[in-house]
Amino acid sequence: MTLTEVMIGASVLGLVLGGALLVMQRNHRMLSAARDLNVATQLLQNEVEHMRLADWTTVSGYAASATLTPDAAFTSDTQIRNRFTLTRTTSAVNSTLIELVYTVRWTSADNRTMARSIRTRYAQYGLATWYYTGS
Description:
By secondary structure, the protein is of the alpha+beta class. The protein has one domain (3-133). Helix content is 54%, strand content 27%.
């Protein structure tokens, strides 16, 4: 084997390993983004479920805008507690219907600000009653 053949072989090996590292790095970012999106969705769903369990007096008393503390199941993990911010905005559609928007914001692994929101409504006598009777 000549020196030229060894150099060509080493170059090819370097390209293959470099490509593999790039693919692994990209896959890590994609996996991290998927995990973050999953956590954000769970945070939103958890808050909506807490709101659904509350009565009309509690929900109608929510401030127009608030930064919320996630449930203890989420805040025990410092990765979540330090990276995710949960907010709620509330607006009255009419005297018996409230619209709530929950938003989670976080910084992704590649330092981009990400957000996910969920919009829901809460009616004093239930959404089915509001839908069919308008009150």
